[in-house]
Design a protein that fits this description.
Layout (H helix, E strand, L loop, with lengths): L5 H22 L2 E2 L5 E10 L7 H6 L5 E12 L5 E12 L7 E3 L2 E5 L1 E5 L2 E9 L4 E9 L6 E5 L5 E5 L5 E2 H7 L5 H8 L3 H9 L5 H12 L7 H12 L8 H12 L1 H5 L3 E2 L3 E2 L6 E3 L7 H9 L4 E6 L2 E6 L3 E2 L7 H4 L8 E2 H10 L5 H7 L1 H4 L6 H13 L16 E4 L1 H26 L7 H4 L3 H13 L3 E3 L5 H8 L1 E3 L13 H4 L23 E3 L5 E2 L5 E8 L6 E9 H4 L4 E2 L15 E6 L2 E6 L5 E3 L8 H4 L9 H10 L11
Parallel strand pairs: 7-22, 27-30
Antiparallel strand pairs: 1-2, 2-3, 3-4, 5-6, 6-21, 7-20, 8-9, 9-10, 10-11, 11-12, 13-16, 14-15, 16-17, 18-19, 22-23, 24-25, 25-26, 25-30, 27-28, 28-29
Length: about 650
């Protein structure tokens, strides 16, 4: 049986170990307007003991918290003087062993939130008048400016930068440094959507394009090329303003990398390894998944494929697997789970001695795995959009659990802490200009009020911080495992349509299809399935037992799969009879593959569910013989069990 409050505890522990440090690192260094004084947050730690125990806090109507201390360094560039101090940054509420917080004597729970994941989304709508498909796309970060592409009836492609008025997409391409019409068509291919857009585009150079974007973003202001360039760079390439987060980088690389997009396509011409000159794929050959990875990892970023006798150019996002270029021993403790930026990696390897490679990689870690969008990402997202016109690539389903992620308590707290630190940063800057440079100390610059008020605000009045339901032990557990689509940055009851509330096939083993409130919140508030867990990116994973294809045996290896991963495999149900030899008894098995339920030979099955109960939540699995019950009654039953009052003397 899994630990049922692990969702809450793991997330909060991550916040204490890493989340706090990430935000302090983002804010550092704080400089004054003359860049003479520099304030750095070096390290942080929590007090070992809290002022009160959990019981004492409840008795005294106090908050169960610990003091947060930060080590701060103040550097005066003019005099070369360095002052270091340990500063108290405020009291931080601590999670109890049962996954709750004690705030002013009352136990509260922070409910996890289900939101759209940062990624590139592509959609298609059919226009009845013209009888054609109109494409649209959204490039969505965690924080920062959105890019939205759309094509109209006349096959002209537009872009909206940060939800402003639309511009021809070629204006954006020019602003990123590809100026000539011939260059644009050479790089992206002789696409109809581009040719017609180029005719509409009034800009001809990078400077004109930047000015055009500036006019849309800052209407009424006098545009200058310096201001336009600064605004554009700050909008997309400043990590403080544009943040994809770890999950965004992961989704971008999954969606836009070359290998995933050229797999199973026919090569239009020979594809050669740039380093060795070896032909990887010959003209007319179908590119396998293995060779596609090889092509991407050789540094190739553009491949021409054949679609209905047409040449279609596919552009990747310029990333490679670092393990193909650097030995494990040189990476040391550096973890590269994602593909890295190839052009930067290549220059590091070429310009660094082997014994200094680790230091160089460590120094450039944030650039190798950029948290902001890159030129290559934007070009790849435009290329994907143009490829959809040739039916290459796929349209996204925004209700798929691969495109929705869970923000747990740790991330919600981190966002709140970031708000508090941003307020603190403003206060520090103002004080730097006012105070006497000789007698100034870090303590005099830092005011702890903005941080403690931001945290208090979150626990006291956020929609997701709720008074714990303590009617009985089940209601308490169910509350901690609740997943809400409402709250700041989420949906609102009034705007949510039927699709968002509906059950989706990816909910299987992840979110309970039964337990949900009756009334206006139906489908917006759900419960985590009994064996589900949330991975480091915030995606819900379900457990499955792996089948060894060589022996046909069902192994004891349990793999947790996200919705994206599960779509690739064939799943057998937990009720399928298994013999003493560990193999299926039946030769033909009922299976699940994406939305299809079919019968296949036993050899084709990849995974088996771990338990027949895995589909439902804790409350729903407590209903005896639930499968014989009517759905409406099970929904009411799972909700009403939480309202049962346990009596000291049973009647």
């Amino acid at each position: 049986m899994p630990n049922l409050v692990k969702v809450q505890k793991d997330s909060y522990n991550w916040f204490l170990k890493e989340g706090l440090g990430e935000v302090l690192k983002e804010v550092s260094p704080i400089t004054d307007f003359t860049e003479n004084l520099v304030l750095d947050f070096i390290d942080y730690h929590m007090d070992e003991k809290s002022k009160y125990t959990v019981e004492e806090a409840k008795e005294r109507d106090a908050t169960y918290s610990k003091k947060l201390h930060v080590k701060v360094r103040l550097f005066n560039r003019e005099s070369g003087e360095i002052k270091e101090q340990e500063i108290y940054l405020g009291d931080f509420p601590i999670m109890t062993d049962t996954g709750t917080f004690v705030i002013n004597g009352a136990e509260r729970v922070v409910v996890s939130q289900l939101v759209r994941s940062p990624s590139c989304y592509y959609a298609s709508t059919f226009d009845n008048k013209k009888g054609k498909n109109l494409l649209s796309s959204t490039v969505m970060p965690l924080r920062g400016a959105w890019l939205e592409y759309e094509s109209d009836n006349n096959d002209i492609t537009y872009v909206r930068v940060d939800r402003t008025r639309k511009l021809p997409i070629t204006t954006l391409i020019r602003a990123l440094g590809i100026e000539q019409d011939s260059q644009i068509l050479e790089i992206f291919g002789e696409e109809n959507l581009l040719k017609l857009t180029l005719e509409k585009d009034v800009t001809k150079t990078q400077e004109e394009a930047l000015i055009e974007i500036y006019k849309k973003l800052r209407p009424g202001e006098l545009p200058t090329i310096e201001a336009a360039k600064t605004l554009f760079d700050r909008l997309f390439f400043d990590p403080k303003r544009y943040d994809l987060a770890k999950v965004g980088r992961h989704k971008f690389n999954m969606k836009l990398s070359l290998a995933t997009r050229i797999t199973n396509q026919e090569a239009f011409e020979d594809i050669m390894d740039l380093q060795t000159g070896e032909v990887l794929v010959e003209k007319g050959q179908i590119i396998s998944a293995e060779i596609a990875k090889q092509i991407q990892n050789s540094g190739i970023n553009t491949v021409a494929v054949k679609v209905k006798d047409n040449k279609v150019i596919i552009i990747g996002n310029g990333t490679v697997d670092i393990h193909n270029f650097v030995e494990e021993s040189d990476l040391g403790d550096l973890k590269f789970k994602e593909y890295v930026n190839y052009s930067l990696l290549k220059s590091i390897i070429e310009n660094t001695d082997k014994d200094k490679l680790y230091e160089a990689l460590k120094e450039n870690y944030d650039e190798l795995l950029p948290r902001h969008i890159t030129n290559e990402d934007i070009f790849a997202s435009i290329s994907y959009f143009l490829n959809l016109d040739h039916k290459l690539g796929k349209i996204d389903d925004i209700d798929h659990l691969g495109n929705r992620r869970v923000r747990c308590v740790g991330e919600l707290l981190q966002n709140q802490f970031r708000i508090g630190l941003a307020r603190l940063e403003r206060v520090v800057r103002e004080r730097m200009t006012v105070q006497d440079l000789d007698s100034i100390t870090p303590q005099a610059l830092i005011n702890t009020k903005p941080i403690s008020s931001a945290i208090r605000e979150f626990f006291g009045s956020s929609q997701l911080s709720q008074f714990m339901d303590q009617t009985n032990p089940l209601s308490e557990l169910a509350h901690k495992r609740r997943i809400s689509a409402l709250g700041p940055g989420g949906l609102t009851r009034e705007r949510a349509g039927f699709e968002v509330r509906d059950i989706h096939y990816t909910h299987y083993g992840r979110l309970c299809p039964i337990e949900s409130p009756e009334g206006p919140n139906i489908g917006l508030i759900s419960a985590l399935s009994i064996f589900a867990r949330i991975n480091e990116y915030g995606f819900v994973e379900a457990p499955y037992r792996k089948i060894d294809h060589e022996t046909g045996k069902i192994t004891d290896q349990v793999d947790y799969l996200s919705a994206d991963q599960e779509d690739k495999y064939i799943m057998a149900q937990a009720t399928e009879p298994i013999g003493k030899d560990g193999r299926f008894v039946n030769k033909v098995i009922k299976v699940r593959k994406v939305t299809e339920y079919q019968q296949v030979p036993a050899e084709m099955v990849d995974y088996v569910e771990v338990s027949p109960q895995e589909i439902a939540s804790i409350a729903a699995t407590m209903i005896p013989f639930m499968e014989h019950d009517d759905v409406k009654r099970t929904l009411m039953g799972s909700n009403m069990q939480r309202q049962a009052v346990p009596l000291l003397k049973t009647e």
